[in-house]
Specification:
15 strands, 612 residues, binds adenosine-5'-diphosphate, 12% strand, 4 domains, Arc Repressor Mutant, subunit A, Rossmann fold, 7-stranded parallel β-sheet, binds zinc ion, 45% helix
Length: 612
């Protein structure tokens, strides 16, 4: 038996957002709010946190106050709520006079349901006394990890939230975050002084994301190849350094891809322009440092490529989590190299010197970095490894959505032979050369340096000539990762470890090596709960995207505010014929059905007439 309150919530979610079901933990999060119990809700990026604090106030009297750290986030959510017909407003330093008037009017009218404010507001006397006279029914704190010094985005203003709590007697606090560490969660509870809070940690797995990890041999080419798997779709490419951001963006543009750069070194104006172009689907790819992403709620990012290794698994979850918020299949590709570990180590050491961080902070960062490296090197299901990092387990044997389970990484027949050949060559070269050189010798390169050194006389010369040089390089990297080879000195010369020496001498078998990666199949079928490719009329989907673009441009909002891709795909699968069919489609709420129903129904009718 479903309780009347649950029924009301279901109805509201259905009527306003067009969702027929709640996602994991959303019900519990809403229950905490409705039963007036403080809560801390931890859901991964894209897990659906906003709905948790937006829906309950629609079935109660009064209004709710939402604290959010970023103006772009507030704007986005208010735009979306408005489009769904929910009276909402945001007050922050970038308000236009019209926005301010609108907000003031809503606040006076008593119709207001959700008010977003930045934490800085909370010290303004005028606003505080207004709050005293018109107390909200609850307080939601988005990105609550900002309150913690141990989080990745500490904002001291968040500490003042506690004062607000004292001021508004009896109000309940509901904190939301995607943070994974126990320490930060503890800190949130303490700093906000949550009373007997309901701790709700949702499943961290994102079944619609397909994870791949590859060793990097040619960043530009590998990125291009992945981008081309998603023509005309939105994607984010992360690079560690600004210079690489610029280069990759230019490279992609030269290849005819609508790519724009984003990093902290660009003029504010250009950064905002590039971000907007991406959000509005005017550019397909944004190439960025990690400076990009916070405050972007774009739901239809189809892929996130890391062309360099992120600094921790937690960062990786956060950054890759920006793919596929709408629940549709999306790809997360990570290209890594051992050199990334060195790059991050240098960055940490430098910032340690500058900020005077303690040794233990540096150690903690390095530990997380090594965790990330281990993830890259491992050959176990990526979904399992990632949720495992956050202390969760997956039941399924195979996820069907990672390079390991898709059998893209398979051990190679005859790896014993290959492994031994590589190690013998390193010994023959007196352990005095780097990976590139060793690979050249094994491939039988006729480069002058090799001939001058008379290394064409070695037994190992050309021993792996029938393989691609880049595969030989990859095997060398694998042997380093497996501990058979070590790199030393300024020139990163390859030396044999004890195990490596034993293999080279024939005392031990060589380890299993992975075969060269085959070309990625076009589409992995993840367990995403949306219409499959077979049901969707792709031509109609493209047509609806165009219509959405036109509607969005005439209204000056991002296209996804009209409908997200998941909803368009539902429409392109079900092809509703009349308003009531239209309203029944997942993701269509009443307000949007009224506003956009005719336009979309017309487009669908026309398509059916033309194509049959
Ligand atoms: P988070 O803040 O946790 O990163 P969001 O609140 O932005 O995630 O939600 C991610 C996406 O999921 C949004 O596009 C939202 O429309 C969608 N969503 C949320 N809840 C549901 C639901 N119950 N059914 C279908 N889609 C949902
Ligand atoms: Zn898997």
């Amino acid at each position: 038996m479903i309780s009347p309150l649950h029924q009301q919530i279901n109805d509201a979610v259905h009527k306003v957002w067009g969702y027929k079901t709640l996602r994991p933990m959303q019900r519990e999060a809403m229950d905490a709010i409705l039963t007036k119990r403080d809560s801390l809700v931890v859901l991964p990026t894209g897990g659906g946190k906003s709905l948790c604090f937006q829906a309950p106030v629609l079935v109660t009297e009064g209004w709710a106050l939402v604290i959010s750290p970023l103006i772009s986030l507030m704007k986005d959510q208010v735009d979306a709520l408005e489009a769904d017909g929910v009276p909402a407003a945001a007050i922050h330093s970038a308000n236009t006079p019209e926005e301010r008037d609108r907000a003031a009017k809503l606040m006076r009218s008593g119709k207001l349901k959700l008010l977003y404010v930045s934490p800085e507001r909370l010290v303004q006397q005028k606003f505080l006394s207004w709050l005293n006279r018109h107390p909200p029914v609850y307080l939601a704190i988005d990105e609550a990890h900002c309150i913690s010094m141990w989080g990745h985005d500490f904002r001291p203003e968040y500490r003042r939230l506690r004062e607000l709590k004292d001021r508004l007697k009896g109000i309940t606090l509901h904190a939301f975050t995607a943070t994974a560490t126990e320490r930060v969660r503890q800190d949130i509870v303490e700093q906000l002084d949550l009373k007997d809070p309901s701790l709700l940690v949702g499943p961290f797995d994102r079944p619609n994301l397909t994870y791949r990890v590859r060793r990097r041999h040619d960043a530009q080419q590998q990125v291009l190849e992945a981008v081309r798997r998603h023509p005309g779709r939105a994607g984010i490419v992360y690079r560690i350094r600004r210079k690489d951001v610029e280069e990759t963006a230019a490279f992609l543009r030269k290849k005819g891809i609508k790519a724009l750069p984003y990093h902290a070194g660009l003029e504010e104006e250009e950064r905002v322009e590039n971000q907007d172009a991406f959000v509005r689907d005017e550019a397909d790819v944004i190439v960025a440092t990690v400076a990009f992403g916070m405050g972007i709620d774009k739901p239809d990012v189809r892929y996130v490529i890391h062309a360099g290794m992120p600094q921790s698994v937690e960062h990786y979850m956060q950054e890759s989590g920006r793919a596929g918020r709408d629940g549709l299949d999306s790809e997360c590709l990570l290209l890594y190299s051992d050199a990334d570990v060195a790059t991050w180590t240098r960055i940490f050491e430098r910032s340690n010197g500058e900020n005077g961080d303690s040794e233990s902070q540096l150690e903690a960062k390095l530990e997380q970095l090594y965790g990330m490296r281990d993830y890259c090197r491992s050959v176990t299901c990526r979904h399992k490894a990632l949720v495992g990092y956050f202390g969760q387990e997956l039941d399924e044997e195979e996820c069907g959505a990672c390079d390991v389970c898709l059998k893209e990484l398979e051990t190679m027949d005859g790896s014993d032979e290959v492994g031994r050949t590589v190690l013998e060559a390193v010994r023959e070269l007196d352990e005095r050369f780097g990976a590139h050189y060793v690979a050249q010798v094994l491939s039988g390169s006729t480069e002058s340096r090799i001939l001058e050194n008379r290394h064409d006389q070695l037994t190992g010369y050309g021993a792996l000539a029938e393989h691609r040089m880049r595969d030989v390089r990859d095997w060398i990297e694998q042997l380093v990762e497996l501990g058979y080879l070590e790199r030393t000195g300024e020139f990163r010369v390859l030396e044999l470890s004890t195990a490596g020496r034993n293999v080279a001498r024939g005392l031990e078998p060589a380890p299993d090596l992975l075969a060269p990666v085959k070309k990625v199949r076009k589409r992995a079928t993840s367990k995403a709960t949306v219409p499959g490719t077979s049901e969707v009329d792709e031509a109609l989907f493209e047509r609806l995207r165009n219509l959405r673009m036109r509607l969005a441009q005439s209204r000056g909002v991002p296209p996804y505010i009209i409908f997200n891709d998941a909803t368009l795909r539902e429409l392109a699968a079900h092809k509703p014929e009349n308003p009531s069919h239209f309203l029944a489609v997942k993701g269509v709420g009443q307000r949007k059905a009224q506003q956009f129903g005719e336009a979309f129904l017309d487009e669908i009718r026309q398509h059916v007439r033309e194509v049959g």
